[in-house]
Protein backbone atom coordinates (compact mmCIF):
# COMPACT_ATOMS: atom_id res chain seq x y z
CA UNK A 1 0.00 0.00 0.00
CA UNK A 2 1.12 3.48 -0.83
CA UNK A 3 1.47 5.56 2.40
CA UNK A 4 -0.75 8.26 0.85
CA UNK A 5 -3.46 5.85 -0.35
CA UNK A 6 -7.01 6.64 0.71
CA UNK A 7 -8.01 3.74 2.96
CA UNK A 8 -11.57 2.94 4.08
CA UNK A 9 -11.90 0.77 7.19
CA UNK A 10 -15.51 -0.44 7.41
CA UNK A 11 -16.37 -1.25 11.05
CA UNK A 12 -13.59 0.97 12.50
CA UNK A 13 -15.17 1.08 15.99
CA UNK A 14 -15.34 -2.70 16.29
CA UNK A 15 -12.68 -4.97 17.76
CA UNK A 16 -11.12 -5.84 14.39
CA UNK A 17 -11.64 -2.51 12.62
CA UNK A 18 -10.13 -0.56 15.54
CA UNK A 19 -7.10 -2.89 15.59
CA UNK A 20 -6.61 -2.35 11.84
CA UNK A 21 -6.83 1.43 12.32
CA UNK A 22 -4.27 1.29 15.19
CA UNK A 23 -1.88 -0.73 13.02
CA UNK A 24 -2.35 1.51 9.96
CA UNK A 25 -1.61 4.61 12.05
CA UNK A 26 1.46 2.94 13.61
CA UNK A 27 2.74 2.18 10.12
CA UNK A 28 2.32 5.80 8.97
CA UNK A 29 -0.90 5.61 6.94
CA UNK A 30 -2.87 8.79 7.58
CA UNK A 31 -5.38 9.11 4.74
CA UNK A 32 -8.05 7.04 6.49
CA UNK A 33 -11.82 7.34 6.09
CA UNK A 34 -14.55 5.78 8.19
CA UNK A 35 -18.15 6.20 9.30
CA UNK A 36 -20.12 4.80 12.22
CA UNK A 37 -23.21 2.68 11.54
CA UNK A 38 -25.47 5.59 12.52
CA UNK A 39 -23.72 7.86 9.99
CA UNK A 40 -23.72 5.21 7.23
CA UNK A 41 -25.89 2.09 7.41
CA UNK A 42 -23.97 -0.37 5.27
CA UNK A 43 -27.19 -2.32 4.61
CA UNK A 44 -28.32 0.60 2.43
CA UNK A 45 -26.84 0.23 -1.08
CA UNK A 46 -27.62 3.76 -2.22
CA UNK A 47 -26.05 5.29 0.92
CA UNK A 48 -22.98 3.08 0.42
CA UNK A 49 -22.77 4.18 -3.23
CA UNK A 50 -23.00 7.87 -2.28
CA UNK A 51 -20.19 7.38 0.24
CA UNK A 52 -17.96 5.57 -2.29
CA UNK A 53 -18.73 8.13 -4.98
CA UNK A 54 -17.67 11.03 -2.77
CA UNK A 55 -14.68 9.37 -1.02
CA UNK A 56 -13.41 7.04 -3.77
CA UNK A 57 -11.35 4.88 -1.39
CA UNK A 58 -8.42 3.13 -3.07
CA UNK A 59 -8.09 0.44 -0.40
CA UNK A 60 -10.95 -1.15 1.55
CA UNK A 61 -10.74 -3.25 4.73
CA UNK A 62 -14.20 -4.85 5.15
CA UNK A 63 -14.38 -5.41 8.92
CA UNK A 64 -18.03 -4.39 9.44
CA UNK A 65 -20.51 -7.14 10.25
CA UNK A 66 -23.18 -8.24 12.67
CA UNK A 67 -21.10 -10.31 15.08
CA UNK A 68 -21.73 -12.30 18.25
CA UNK A 69 -21.18 -15.54 20.11
CA UNK A 70 -22.99 -18.83 19.80
CA UNK A 71 -26.25 -17.76 21.47
CA UNK A 72 -26.48 -14.43 19.58
CA UNK A 73 -25.90 -16.27 16.27
CA UNK A 74 -28.55 -18.83 17.13
CA UNK A 75 -31.11 -16.25 18.37
CA UNK A 76 -30.90 -13.43 15.81
CA UNK A 77 -30.67 -15.84 12.88
CA UNK A 78 -32.49 -13.68 10.33
CA UNK A 79 -30.49 -10.55 11.25
CA UNK A 80 -27.16 -12.39 11.06
CA UNK A 81 -28.02 -13.61 7.56
CA UNK A 82 -29.68 -10.45 6.21
CA UNK A 83 -27.31 -7.81 7.64
CA UNK A 84 -24.17 -9.71 6.72
CA UNK A 85 -25.32 -10.51 3.19
CA UNK A 86 -26.16 -6.85 2.58
CA UNK A 87 -23.06 -5.36 4.21
CA UNK A 88 -20.74 -7.62 2.18
CA UNK A 89 -22.69 -7.26 -1.08
CA UNK A 90 -23.06 -3.48 -0.88
CA UNK A 91 -19.41 -2.76 -0.11
CA UNK A 92 -17.99 -5.27 -2.59
CA UNK A 93 -20.26 -3.97 -5.38
CA UNK A 94 -19.44 -0.33 -4.57
CA UNK A 95 -15.70 -1.11 -4.48
CA UNK A 96 -16.09 -2.48 -8.01
CA UNK A 97 -18.35 0.34 -9.30
CA UNK A 98 -16.19 3.12 -7.88
CA UNK A 99 -12.91 1.41 -8.83
CA UNK A 100 -11.21 0.70 -5.51
CA UNK A 101 -7.80 -0.83 -6.22
CA UNK A 102 -8.00 -3.53 -3.59
CA UNK A 103 -10.41 -4.90 -0.98
CA UNK A 104 -9.92 -7.36 1.90
CA UNK A 105 -13.03 -9.21 3.07
CA UNK A 106 -13.08 -10.84 6.51
CA UNK A 107 -14.96 -14.10 6.94
CA UNK A 108 -14.67 -16.57 9.81
CA UNK A 109 -13.65 -20.15 10.58
CA UNK A 110 -17.38 -21.02 10.91
CA UNK A 111 -17.57 -21.23 7.07
CA UNK A 112 -16.20 -24.79 7.31
CA UNK A 113 -18.40 -27.90 7.61
CA UNK A 114 -19.20 -28.86 11.21
CA UNK A 115 -17.46 -32.23 10.92
CA UNK A 116 -14.63 -31.34 8.53
CA UNK A 117 -11.27 -33.09 9.07
CA UNK A 118 -8.85 -31.21 11.34
CA UNK A 119 -6.90 -29.03 10.88
CA UNK A 120 -9.19 -27.11 8.53
CA UNK A 121 -7.61 -26.66 5.13
CA UNK A 122 -8.94 -23.95 2.79
CA UNK A 123 -10.06 -26.59 0.28
CA UNK A 124 -12.62 -28.03 2.76
CA UNK A 125 -15.04 -25.14 2.03
CA UNK A 126 -18.47 -26.46 0.90
CA UNK A 127 -17.52 -30.11 1.45
CA UNK A 128 -20.25 -30.81 4.05
CA UNK A 129 -23.06 -29.52 6.28
CA UNK A 130 -22.56 -26.40 8.42
CA UNK A 131 -22.91 -26.13 12.21
CA UNK A 132 -26.63 -25.28 12.75
CA UNK A 133 -26.11 -22.62 15.50
CA UNK A 134 -24.28 -20.31 13.09
CA UNK A 135 -25.43 -21.49 9.67
CA UNK A 136 -27.04 -18.11 8.72
CA UNK A 137 -23.85 -16.17 9.57
CA UNK A 138 -21.67 -18.76 7.82
CA UNK A 139 -23.79 -18.63 4.65
CA UNK A 140 -23.44 -14.83 4.52
CA UNK A 141 -19.66 -15.17 4.99
CA UNK A 142 -19.45 -17.81 2.24
CA UNK A 143 -21.42 -15.45 -0.03
CA UNK A 144 -18.83 -12.73 0.73
CA UNK A 145 -15.97 -15.05 -0.26
CA UNK A 146 -17.75 -15.96 -3.49
CA UNK A 147 -18.48 -12.31 -4.32
CA UNK A 148 -14.76 -11.51 -4.02
CA UNK A 149 -13.85 -14.52 -6.16
CA UNK A 150 -16.45 -13.76 -8.85
CA UNK A 151 -15.74 -10.02 -9.07
CA UNK A 152 -12.13 -11.07 -9.67
CA UNK A 153 -13.12 -13.68 -12.27
CA UNK A 154 -15.59 -11.53 -14.17
CA UNK A 155 -14.17 -8.00 -13.70
CA UNK A 156 -10.55 -8.61 -12.69
CA UNK A 157 -11.04 -6.85 -9.31
CA UNK A 158 -8.21 -7.36 -6.80
CA UNK A 159 -10.51 -8.51 -3.99
CA UNK A 160 -9.09 -10.96 -1.42
CA UNK A 161 -10.54 -12.75 1.61
CA UNK A 162 -9.14 -13.87 4.97
CA UNK A 163 -10.80 -16.31 7.40
CA UNK A 164 -9.81 -15.53 10.99
CA UNK A 165 -10.22 -18.03 13.79
CA UNK A 166 -11.98 -16.94 17.05
CA UNK A 167 -10.57 -13.54 18.04
CA UNK A 168 -10.14 -11.56 21.26
CA UNK A 169 -8.52 -8.26 22.23
CA UNK A 170 -9.16 -4.59 23.02
CA UNK A 171 -12.69 -3.33 22.28
CA UNK A 172 -14.20 -6.81 22.53
CA UNK A 173 -17.87 -7.26 23.42
CA UNK A 174 -18.38 -8.34 27.08
CA UNK A 175 -22.18 -8.62 26.98
CA UNK A 176 -23.16 -11.63 29.17
CA UNK A 177 -25.55 -13.10 26.55
CA UNK A 178 -24.26 -11.99 23.16
CA UNK A 179 -20.47 -12.14 23.52
CA UNK A 180 -18.00 -14.86 22.50
CA UNK A 181 -16.64 -17.30 25.06
CA UNK A 182 -13.32 -15.64 25.93
CA UNK A 183 -14.66 -12.18 26.90
CA UNK A 184 -17.72 -13.84 28.50
CA UNK A 185 -15.48 -15.93 30.79
CA UNK A 186 -13.27 -12.98 31.70
CA UNK A 187 -16.37 -11.15 32.88
CA UNK A 188 -17.91 -14.16 34.64
CA UNK A 189 -14.73 -15.02 36.60
CA UNK A 190 -14.07 -11.37 37.48
CA UNK A 191 -17.60 -10.82 38.77
CA UNK A 192 -17.55 -14.13 40.66
CA UNK A 193 -14.29 -13.06 42.35
CA UNK A 194 -15.72 -9.64 43.30
CA UNK A 195 -18.99 -11.15 44.59
CA UNK A 196 -17.34 -14.02 46.48
CA UNK A 197 -19.37 -16.56 44.45
CA UNK A 198 -18.69 -20.26 44.96
CA UNK A 199 -18.89 -21.22 41.27
CA UNK A 200 -18.86 -20.02 37.67
CA UNK A 201 -21.13 -21.62 35.08
CA UNK A 202 -19.75 -22.61 31.68
CA UNK A 203 -22.19 -23.06 28.80
CA UNK A 204 -22.23 -26.53 27.28
CA UNK A 205 -20.02 -29.46 28.21
CA UNK A 206 -16.66 -27.65 28.09
CA UNK A 207 -15.33 -30.26 25.68
CA UNK A 208 -15.49 -28.35 22.34
CA UNK A 209 -12.08 -27.11 21.24
CA UNK A 210 -11.36 -23.59 20.00
CA UNK A 211 -8.36 -21.63 18.75
CA UNK A 212 -7.88 -17.99 19.80
CA UNK A 213 -5.97 -15.25 17.96
CA UNK A 214 -5.21 -11.83 19.43
CA UNK A 215 -6.75 -9.12 17.25
CA UNK A 216 -3.42 -7.23 17.01
CA UNK A 217 -1.95 -10.31 15.32
CA UNK A 218 -4.96 -10.39 12.98
CA UNK A 219 -4.51 -6.68 12.13
CA UNK A 220 -0.86 -7.36 11.26
CA UNK A 221 -1.98 -10.24 9.01
CA UNK A 222 -4.54 -7.98 7.28
CA UNK A 223 -1.87 -5.37 6.42
CA UNK A 224 0.51 -8.15 5.38
CA UNK A 225 -2.08 -9.59 2.97
CA UNK A 226 -2.94 -6.15 1.57
CA UNK A 227 0.75 -5.71 0.74
CA UNK A 228 1.63 -9.22 -0.37
CA UNK A 229 -1.35 -11.25 -1.54
CA UNK A 230 -3.31 -10.98 -4.80
CA UNK A 231 -5.05 -14.30 -5.30
CA UNK A 232 -8.65 -15.49 -5.42
CA UNK A 233 -8.00 -18.32 -2.90
CA UNK A 234 -9.06 -17.12 0.58
CA UNK A 235 -6.58 -17.74 3.40
CA UNK A 236 -6.98 -19.00 6.97
CA UNK A 237 -5.58 -16.72 9.69
CA UNK A 238 -4.93 -18.32 13.05
CA UNK A 239 -2.32 -19.72 15.40
CA UNK A 240 -2.70 -23.40 14.49
CA UNK A 241 -3.16 -24.51 18.14
CA UNK A 242 -6.32 -25.00 20.15
CA UNK A 243 -7.56 -25.99 23.60
CA UNK A 244 -10.83 -27.18 25.11
CA UNK A 245 -13.32 -24.66 26.53
CA UNK A 246 -12.71 -26.19 29.97
CA UNK A 247 -8.93 -25.66 29.57
CA UNK A 248 -9.61 -22.07 28.49
CA UNK A 249 -11.81 -21.60 31.56
CA UNK A 250 -9.05 -22.96 33.87
CA UNK A 251 -6.53 -20.56 32.28
CA UNK A 252 -8.81 -17.52 32.70
CA UNK A 253 -9.73 -18.61 36.25
CA UNK A 254 -5.99 -18.61 37.16
CA UNK A 255 -5.29 -15.25 35.51
CA UNK A 256 -8.29 -13.63 37.23
CA UNK A 257 -7.52 -15.33 40.56
CA UNK A 258 -10.92 -16.91 41.18
CA UNK A 259 -10.81 -19.74 43.70
CA UNK A 260 -14.25 -21.36 43.37
CA UNK A 261 -15.36 -24.20 41.12
CA UNK A 262 -16.48 -24.48 37.52
CA UNK A 263 -19.92 -25.96 36.79
CA UNK A 264 -21.65 -26.70 33.47
CA UNK A 265 -24.99 -25.63 31.99
CA UNK A 266 -25.57 -28.33 29.39
CA UNK A 267 -28.86 -26.77 28.28
CA UNK A 268 -26.68 -24.32 26.30
CA UNK A 269 -25.25 -25.44 22.93
CA UNK A 270 -21.70 -26.72 22.40
CA UNK A 271 -21.61 -25.72 18.73
CA UNK A 272 -18.89 -27.07 16.46
CA UNK A 273 -16.83 -29.75 18.24
CA UNK A 274 -13.54 -28.40 16.89
CA UNK A 275 -12.34 -25.81 14.36
CA UNK A 276 -8.56 -25.81 14.31
CA UNK A 277 -7.14 -23.79 11.42
CA UNK A 278 -4.49 -25.11 9.06
CA UNK A 279 -2.31 -22.02 8.73
CA UNK A 280 0.33 -23.53 6.44
CA UNK A 281 -0.50 -21.28 3.49
CA UNK A 282 -0.27 -17.94 5.29
CA UNK A 283 2.77 -19.09 7.33
CA UNK A 284 4.54 -20.04 4.08
CA UNK A 285 3.86 -16.56 2.69
CA UNK A 286 5.74 -15.12 5.69
CA UNK A 287 3.14 -14.23 8.36
CA UNK A 288 2.89 -15.97 11.75
CA UNK A 289 0.96 -15.11 14.94
CA UNK A 290 3.18 -13.74 17.74
CA UNK A 291 1.05 -13.14 20.85
CA UNK A 292 0.69 -16.17 23.16
CA UNK A 293 -2.74 -16.92 24.60
CA UNK A 294 -1.47 -16.49 28.17
CA UNK A 295 0.04 -13.03 27.56
CA UNK A 296 -2.93 -12.00 25.39
CA UNK A 297 -5.48 -12.88 28.08
CA UNK A 298 -3.40 -11.10 30.76
CA UNK A 299 -3.37 -7.91 28.69
CA UNK A 300 -7.10 -7.97 27.88
CA UNK A 301 -7.91 -8.71 31.52
CA UNK A 302 -5.95 -5.57 32.51
CA UNK A 303 -7.88 -3.55 29.93
CA UNK A 304 -11.18 -5.06 31.13
CA UNK A 305 -10.56 -4.23 34.82
CA UNK A 306 -9.44 -0.69 33.99
CA UNK A 307 -12.85 -0.03 32.38
CA UNK A 308 -15.06 -2.27 34.52
CA UNK A 309 -17.93 -0.93 36.53
CA UNK A 310 -20.56 -3.29 37.95
N1 LIG B 1 -14.88 -11.47 16.87
C1 LIG B 1 -14.47 -12.65 16.40
O1 LIG B 1 -14.16 -13.59 17.15
C2 LIG B 1 -14.37 -12.87 14.92
C3 LIG B 1 -14.70 -11.87 14.00
N2 LIG B 1 -14.58 -12.13 12.65
C4 LIG B 1 -14.95 -11.11 11.64
O2 LIG B 1 -14.23 -9.91 11.84
C5 LIG B 1 -15.05 -8.79 11.45
C6 LIG B 1 -15.14 -7.79 12.59
O3 LIG B 1 -15.64 -8.42 13.76
P1 LIG B 1 -15.54 -7.70 15.19
O4 LIG B 1 -14.63 -6.54 15.11
O5 LIG B 1 -15.31 -8.76 16.19
O6 LIG B 1 -17.05 -7.17 15.37
P2 LIG B 1 -17.57 -5.93 16.24
O7 LIG B 1 -18.97 -6.25 16.59
O8 LIG B 1 -16.61 -5.59 17.31
O9 LIG B 1 -17.57 -4.73 15.17
C7 LIG B 1 -18.38 -4.76 14.05
C8 LIG B 1 -18.49 -3.36 13.49
O10 LIG B 1 -19.36 -3.45 12.35
C9 LIG B 1 -20.11 -2.28 12.29
N3 LIG B 1 -21.44 -2.54 11.75
C10 LIG B 1 -22.29 -3.56 12.07
N4 LIG B 1 -23.45 -3.41 11.38
C11 LIG B 1 -23.31 -2.29 10.61
C12 LIG B 1 -24.16 -1.61 9.70
N5 LIG B 1 -25.40 -2.07 9.43
N6 LIG B 1 -23.70 -0.48 9.11
C13 LIG B 1 -22.47 -0.03 9.39
N7 LIG B 1 -21.61 -0.62 10.23
C14 LIG B 1 -22.04 -1.74 10.85
C15 LIG B 1 -20.25 -1.72 13.70
O11 LIG B 1 -20.18 -0.34 13.60
P3 LIG B 1 -20.63 0.72 14.77
O12 LIG B 1 -19.70 0.46 15.92
O13 LIG B 1 -20.40 2.05 14.17
O14 LIG B 1 -22.05 0.40 15.11
C16 LIG B 1 -19.08 -2.36 14.44
O15 LIG B 1 -18.10 -1.41 14.78
C17 LIG B 1 -16.40 -9.38 11.06
O16 LIG B 1 -16.46 -9.53 9.67
C18 LIG B 1 -16.41 -10.72 11.72
O17 LIG B 1 -17.22 -11.61 11.01
C19 LIG B 1 -14.12 -13.33 12.20
C20 LIG B 1 -13.77 -14.34 13.05
C21 LIG B 1 -13.90 -14.19 14.48
C1 LIG C 1 -16.07 -16.73 16.14
C2 LIG C 1 -17.23 -17.68 16.02
O1 LIG C 1 -18.07 -17.59 17.18
C3 LIG C 1 -19.26 -18.35 17.17
O2 LIG C 1 -18.99 -19.71 17.33
P1 LIG C 1 -18.41 -20.36 18.65
O3 LIG C 1 -16.93 -20.51 18.52
O4 LIG C 1 -19.16 -21.61 18.92
O5 LIG C 1 -18.78 -19.23 19.72
P2 LIG C 1 -18.58 -18.86 21.24
O6 LIG C 1 -17.29 -18.18 21.43
O7 LIG C 1 -19.80 -18.10 21.64
O8 LIG C 1 -18.62 -20.26 22.03
C4 LIG C 1 -17.56 -21.18 22.01
C5 LIG C 1 -17.82 -22.32 22.95
O9 LIG C 1 -17.73 -21.83 24.31
C6 LIG C 1 -18.85 -22.30 25.04
N1 LIG C 1 -19.09 -21.39 26.18
C7 LIG C 1 -18.96 -21.73 27.49
N2 LIG C 1 -19.32 -20.71 28.28
C8 LIG C 1 -19.66 -19.68 27.44
C9 LIG C 1 -20.13 -18.39 27.70
O10 LIG C 1 -20.29 -17.93 28.83
N3 LIG C 1 -20.36 -17.59 26.60
C10 LIG C 1 -20.17 -18.05 25.31
N4 LIG C 1 -20.41 -17.22 24.30
N5 LIG C 1 -19.77 -19.33 25.07
C11 LIG C 1 -19.51 -20.12 26.11
C12 LIG C 1 -19.96 -22.35 24.02
O11 LIG C 1 -21.05 -23.17 24.47
C13 LIG C 1 -19.20 -22.97 22.83
O12 LIG C 1 -19.07 -24.36 23.00
C14 LIG C 1 -20.02 -18.32 15.87
O13 LIG C 1 -21.39 -18.34 16.20
C15 LIG C 1 -19.51 -17.31 14.97
O14 LIG C 1 -19.79 -16.01 15.43
C16 LIG C 1 -18.04 -17.42 14.80
O15 LIG C 1 -17.52 -17.32 13.71
Automatic annotation (TrEMBL):
Q: What is its EC number?
A: 1.1.1.271
This one is known as: GDP-L-fucose synthase
> Keyword set for this entry?
Isomerase, Multifunctional enzyme, NADP, Oxidoreductase
Pathway listed: Nucleotide-sugar biosynthesis; GDP-L-fucose biosynthesis via de novo pathway; GDP-L-fucose from GDP-alpha-D-mannose: step 2/2
Q: Does the keyword ATP-binding apply?
A: no
Q: Which family is this sequence assigned to? A: Belongs to the NAD(P)-dependent epimerase/dehydratase family. Fucose synthase subfamily.
Q: Which gene encodes it?
A: fcl
This enzyme catalyses: GDP-beta-L-fucose + NADP(+) = GDP-4-dehydro-alpha-D-rhamnose + NADPH + H(+)
Q: What positions does the domain NAD-dependent epimerase/dehydratase occupy?
A: 7-238
Site (Important for catalytic activity) residue list = 108, 110
Q: Which GO terms describe its molecular function?
A: GDP-L-fucose synthase activity; isomerase activity; NADP+ binding
User: Which annotated residues bind NADP(+)?
Assistant: 11-17, 106-109, 141, 164-167, 180
Gene Ontology BP annotations: 'de novo' GDP-L-fucose biosynthetic process
Q: What does this protein do?
A: Catalyzes the two-step NADP-dependent conversion of GDP-4-dehydro-6-deoxy-D-mannose to GDP-fucose, involving an epimerase and a reductase reaction.
Q: Where does substrate bind?
A: 188, 203, 210, 270
Amino acid sequence: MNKAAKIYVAGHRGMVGSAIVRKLKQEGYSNLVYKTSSELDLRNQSAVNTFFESEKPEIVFLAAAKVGGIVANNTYRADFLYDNLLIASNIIKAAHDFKSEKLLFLGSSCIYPKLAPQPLKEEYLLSGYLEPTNEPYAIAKIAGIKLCEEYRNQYNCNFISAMPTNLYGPNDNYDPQNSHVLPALIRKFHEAKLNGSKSVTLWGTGSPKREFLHVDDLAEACLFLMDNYNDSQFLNVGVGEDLSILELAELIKDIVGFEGEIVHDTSKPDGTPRKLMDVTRINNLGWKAKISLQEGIKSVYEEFTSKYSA
